[in-house]
Design brief:
By secondary structure, the chain is α+β, with helices and mostly antiparallel strands. The chain has helices at about 1-45, 60-65, 160-170, 200-235; strands spanning about 70-75, 80-90, 90-100, 105-115, 130-140, 175-180. The chain has a 5-stranded mixed beta barrel with strand order 1-3-4-6-5. Helix 1 (about 1-45) runs antiparallel to helix 4 (about 200-235).
C-alpha cells in the first residue's frame, strides 16, 4: 500500500510538472510571437528604404528582413513575366513575377494578382524607368502545398526566385522578391495583397496546460482522500 501511494504521488507530481513546463514554454512563445508581430507592424508602416544589395544577400533572412518596406528605381525586363498559381481574396489566378533591373542588381517584383483567363496584354509591365515600392518577401523554394514547380513546362506553384531566374537565364538575382503596393501600373495586376497574419494561440495553449496541471493535482487529492477513507474503514 505504501509503495503504491508513493508511486501515485511521484507520478502525479511528474505529470503536473510536465504540464506546468509546457505552459511556461507557451508563455515564452507568446512573448516571442508578440515581439515578432510588433516588429513586422513597425516594418510595414516604416519609411521605405533601399532593398538589400548583393553585398547583403548572404545575410538576408526572414527574421531580419521579411516585410521590410523598400523602394527601388529601375526598369522591368520586358517579356519575362512568370505566372505563379495563386488563390486570393480576389479569386483564383496568378501572381505576376517580373524581374526588375535596378542598374546595379536584379530583383523579382511580385507586381500583383491577375484572375484566370486574363490575357498577358492586359498586364504588360510598364516600359522605361519606374519606381517600385513594396514589401520584402522570402523566396519560396520547391513548390506549392500540393504541386511541385515544373520549370520545363513553365508551371509554377510557388515564388521560387532562384528556380525562376535559372529557367529564364537571368543570371544572379536577389534571394528575395518584393510584393508591390497597390496602384503601381494600372488596374492589373492587383498589388498590395500581401497577407500579414500570424496565428497567436499561445496564451490559450498555456492556459490549457496549466489547467491540466491543476486537474492532475486535483485528481491526486481525490485519490489520496479515497485512500485515506479506505484505510480508516479497514482500521475500523
Amino acid at each position: 500500500m505504501r509503495r503504491r501511494l508513493i508511486f501515485i504521488t511521484l507520478a502525479a507530481l511528474l505529470i503536473a510538472a510536465g504540464f506546468v513546463a509546457l505552459g511556461v514554454w507557451q508563455l515564452h512563445r507568446l512573448a516571442w510571437k508578440e515581439a515578432l508581430i510588433a516588429r513586422v507592424e513597425a516594418r510595414v508602416h516604416a519609411t521605405a528604404v533601399a532593398p538589400p544589395g548583393p553585398a547583403a544577400w548572404p545575410m538576408v533572412d526572414a527574421m531580419r528582413d521579411e516585410y521590410r518596406r523598400v523602394a527601388a528605381t529601375g526598369a522591368y525586363l520586358p517579356g519575362e513575366d512568370t505566372l505563379v498559381r495563386a488563390v486570393t481574396d480576389e479569386g483564383r489566378g496568378f501572381w505576376v513575377m517580373t524581374p526588375f533591373d535596378t542598374g546595379g542588381f536584379r530583383i523579382f517584383v511580385n507586381r500583383g494578382f491577375v484572375p484566370d483567363g486574363t490575357p498577358r496584354t492586359a498586364f504588360a509591365a510598364p516600359a522605361g524607368p519606374v519606381r517600385v515600392v513594396g514589401l520584402v518577401r522570402m523566396s519560396e523554394p520547391g513548390g506549392g502545398f500540393l504541386h511541385a514547380n515544373d520549370p520545363a513546362a513553365d508551371r509554377w506553384y510557388s515564388r521560387d526566385v532562384a528556380a525562376i531566374a535559372a529557367h529564364r537565364r537571368l543570371g544572379a538575382v536577389a534571394p528575395y522578391f518584393v510584393d508591390a503596393d497597390r496602384g503601381q501600373g494600372g488596374a492589373l495586376p492587383v498589388g498590395g495583397l500581401t497577407v500579414i497574419a500570424f496565428r497567436n494561440s499561445h496564451l490559450q495553449y498555456a492556459l490549457t496546460w496549466f489547467a491540466l496541471a491543476i486537474m492532475t493535482l486535483g485528481g491526486y487529492i481525490i485519490v489520496m482522500r479515497e485512500e485515506h477513507k479506505l484505510r480508516r474503514t479497514r482500521a475500523a
